Amino acid sequence: MNFGMIEAAAARLRGHARVTPLLSSPFLDEIAGRRVWVKAECLQVTGSFKFRGGWSAVSALEGEGGVLAYSSGNHAQGIAAAAQAHGREAVIVMPADAPAIKVANTKAYGAQVVHYDRATESREEIGAKLAEARGLTLIRPYDEPQVIAGQGTCGLEIARQTAEVGVDGGDVIACCGGGGLSSGIALALEEAAPSFRVRTAEPERFDDVARSLEAGERVENEALSGSICDAIVTPTPGELTFPILKRLAGPGFAVSDEEALRAMALAFLRLKIVLEPGGAVALASALFRPGEIEGDDVVVVASGGNVDPVVFARAISTYGDAA
Amino acid sequence: MNFGMIEAAAARLRGHARVTPLLSSPFLDEIAGRRVWVKAECLQVTGSFKFRGGWSAVSALEGEGGVLAYSSGNHAQGIAAAAQAHGREAVIVMPADAPAIKVANTKAYGAQVVHYDRATESREEIGAKLAEARGLTLIRPYDEPQVIAGQGTCGLEIARQTAEVGVDGGDVIACCGGGGLSSGIALALEEAAPSFRVRTAEPERFDDVARSLEAGERVENEALSGSICDAIVTPTPGELTFPILKRLAGPGFAVSDEEALRAMALAFLRLKIVLEPGGAVALASALFRPGEIEGDDVVVVASGGNVDPVVFARAISTYGDAA
User: By CA distance, what is B267's nearest residue in A?
Assistant: First the structure.
């Protein structure tokens, strides 16, 4: 894993992935007590940053043959869309409780979906068996160098876009499951804008990365399901990603489901973007943990927007009067 | 009104207005039967394209003194935000039934709000009296050259961004109240990308521009209220804007409130952006009037996203399963 791989991924993504905008609102700045810059990855192709890693990995494959991925939904869509565009078969192992919209979209991108029970089965085992039986190349959601490199392209854009608006340093908060996005951005910023520091955001009770960073070694979550932030519930930090985060990241944040829903409502009101709960935890950290942040500016990655309408309607109906 | 004024407005807006992204989704393309390119002006500062015209007009003022505007809400916010940034007082005349979020935001940008009854009072008369009594400069919402020039900067971006994705012509559908946005874009494209043609989109029963284009002269709407598309309900096309549209625009579209709500739900699902009803009628035209459009590509301006949470929640709850 090095910076050159991220630059190479950026070259492969050009014309396929979107350069997502860096948004802001004086109303959010007021809540946070500093300027908040929102990297709107929900506007990425397939509705999340995962398309970056998916395209990076699929476009780096040699030879022919299909791909296999396991995913709660966003990596699934990223891989499925990238595989379809490259004319490769895609098989995706998804939890039975994945949001309906993510399952439907993954199928619509031409992938075959295989379900498993998140609480009792191992997606890694199911995936490994299927990949071997059908000759598919497994693309892991975060412990995969080309995936990390793809997510790192988001960091290259943050470096360029913050320079354009005159921001020259501060915390960059990224939503964190296994750590592919945060470690990729950390590697990109280390070289392209070293005055920025990555920090992770997770749901409370599923803050394995924050606790691992504190402990200095990988620890596990007790629960494997039960958060509204389905996209970023993982058992433990990645083998590849954790050493990167340990070296480069600041202390992690953990926010409640309610704070994630409030951040979704504020993003709706103030930025006019659609965030899923797991895509809103970095924004929630910036808005509701101002005392844990230093500096006049904070950058947050709003990582995805694939949310079922009923969940979104509840968030904005309950918290949309937070004007 | 000429192309040079649009280029000059673009220079004044640089670093203040956002270059909004041109979004797309294969799911929308499938519904429309052609490629649909969505210029996401809901992501503009203040949540609508009106900031372009507001900034253009306020930044072109000479001398000191405050400004006055009448508006159902989006022009109000654009003027209020621009005036605040320029250190000028702003007084805004708004209908009593304007969405609460638009009134609250206009006040939050430091403007004084004066209400009137849309069905029985004339905002033009109230505005003229207030402006004279308090020495304020009136900035009309569309019949104002610098406002049209500001909205035209959206057309400059469309010309550049379509070229970047390899689209070299077709219809550009713009939501239309008085015609400031559509006439500004028409003037910009006439010079910058003449193979594109502007077309207007309005709510049914409030399609004064479409009917005026058909009649060759300005006709009026019978009703002045009663559409869910509050942002684009105007009595008749503008004096300055109509001759431009008559010369350059193709036939107008009219869509139902239900079609606008369905387009909002699809923009939520497929693009992860928040549209208000009046901001969704151009997208609705592209999706639900495919037989009235020619060519492989269509560009739509998604003009604003300032919608009350209850209306948005209803749209996505009712039509969000349109996957």
Answer: A274
Nearest by CB: A42 against B105, B272, B313: B272
Chain A residues whose CB is inside 8 A of the B40 CB are: 43
> What's the token pair of residue A172?
């960059």
Q: Going from the first residue of chain A to its last (323 residues), give the mean pLDDT of each consecutive group of 10, the final group possibly shorter.
A: 96 97 97 98 97 98 93 91 96 89 91 90 88 93 96 98 96 96 98 98 95 94 82 86 98 97 98 97 98 97 96 94 59
pTM score, two decimals?
0.95
> Could you tell me how many CB contacts below 8 A there are between chain A and chain B?
84
**CA-to-CA distance for B310 and B99, rounded, in angstroms?**
11
Residues contacting residue B230 through CB under 8 Å, at least 6 positions apart: B72, B73, B95, B97, B98, B99, B276, B277, B278
User: ipTM of the assembly?
Assistant: 0.95
Nearest CA in chain A to B265: A309
Report the number of distinct structural domains present in chain A.
2
Residues B191 and B292 in one domain: yes
Looking at the structure, tell me whether residues A200 and A263 fall in a common domain: yes
Find the domain containing A11 and state its range: 3-49+145-319
Domain stop point among A102, A117, A138: A138
Of B27, B43, B309, the CB nearest to A21: B43
Chain B nearest C-alpha distance from A61 (Å): 24
DSSP state at residue B142 = S
From the list A143, A141, A176, A148, the residue with the least C-alpha distance to A67 is: A141
A212 CA: distance to closest CA in chain B (Å)? 33
| Chain B residues touching residue A305 (CB < 8 angstroms) | 272
CATH of the domain at B306: 3.40.50.1100
* Same-domain status, B60 and B29: no
Residue pair A32/A290 in contact by the 8 Å Cβ criterion? yes
Report, as an integer, the average pLDDT of B262-269: 98
Q: For residue B308, list chain A residues with Cβ-Cβ distance below 8 A.
A: 320
The greatest distance separating any two alpha carbons of chain A, rounded to the nearest whole angstrom, comes to 55
